[in-house]
Amino acid sequence: MTIKTIIVDDEKLAIQGLQLRLEKFEDVEIIDTCSNGREAIRKIKTLRPDLVFLDIQMPGFDGFGVVQGVMDIEPPLFVFVTAFQEHAIRAFQANALHYLMKPVDEDKLADVIERVRQRMTEKRGADEAEKLMNVLAEVAPEAAEELQDGAADGSDRFEKLLNVKDQGKIFRVEVESIEHIEAAGDYMCIYTGDNSLILRETMKDLERRLDPRKFQRVHRSTIVNLDQVRQVKPHTNGECFLVLSSGAEVKVSRSYRDVVARFVH
């Protein structure tokens, strides 16, 4: 699998620096570079890259303008590269895979490339599965129907183990052992009852990897493993607390009261 990549930055040295850092990734192929937003929109639509490293502050069209300018096609994965921390929130609002601060840190770049690989593998797997189902529907409709019924619960596509790099070590965490997860800026704090680990990932990305029948958002910054809930404690203003297996208590905001309903019979 080759990751076809375009780098967009109005600073030539920044492009060259990122090119050098990307050379160690054998599956990353830089197919072009651009120095302004207008050129970037044209080349993205023409070359259809898998990944675009996109500077935010540029004359004319800025990075966010480039994203808006290619929404009439299936857009690539975007990674914003910026010297300004305040652009981070807008980067995620623009559906960027991630953002990197200048100067680009090699370890963080490696994390981004690994995330890109995962996204592309997931997408490719989904595309291939859809093609197979279309063929089966034509030549063997009964087999296609059985396949669809067998995959109805979709449990196999969710993670059973999470690889968490924390303090220079990689921990393999069984998903069923996770009690709850809390967002802390660019990181996710994963609690397993007797341990806690830090994972660099967005809440949105992590939710996609976890089975929603077991893992539910109970607050804008908290996900809970419903199998670990032992008690529901009412609180004021329609809010409540979930008491987990370890004794930890997690607040459920009013916006997520429907999650609690499944515990009340």
From TrEMBL:
<dbReference type="InterPro" id="IPR001789">
    <property type="entry name" value="Sig_transdc_resp-reg_receiver"/>
</dbReference>
<dbReference type="GO" id="GO:0003677">
    <property type="term" value="F:DNA binding"/>
</dbReference>
<dbReference type="Pfam" id="PF00072">
    <property type="entry name" value="Response_reg"/>
</dbReference>
<feature type="domain" description="HTH LytTR-type">
    <location>
        <begin position="162"/>
        <end position="265"/>
    </location>
</feature>
<dbReference type="InterPro" id="IPR011006">
    <property type="entry name" value="CheY-like_superfamily"/>
</dbReference>
<keyword id="KW-0238">DNA-binding</keyword>
<dbReference type="InterPro" id="IPR007492">
    <property type="entry name" value="LytTR_DNA-bd_dom"/>
</dbReference>
<feature type="domain" description="Response regulatory">
    <location>
        <begin position="4"/>
        <end position="117"/>
    </location>
</feature>
<feature type="modified residue" description="4-aspartylphosphate">
    <location>
        <position position="55"/>
    </location>
</feature>
<dbReference type="Pfam" id="PF04397">
    <property type="entry name" value="LytTR"/>
</dbReference>
<dbReference type="InterPro" id="IPR046947">
    <property type="entry name" value="LytR-like"/>
</dbReference>
<protein>
    <submittedName>
        <fullName>LytTR family DNA-binding domain-containing protein</fullName>
    </submittedName>
</protein>
<keyword id="KW-0597">Phosphoprotein</keyword>
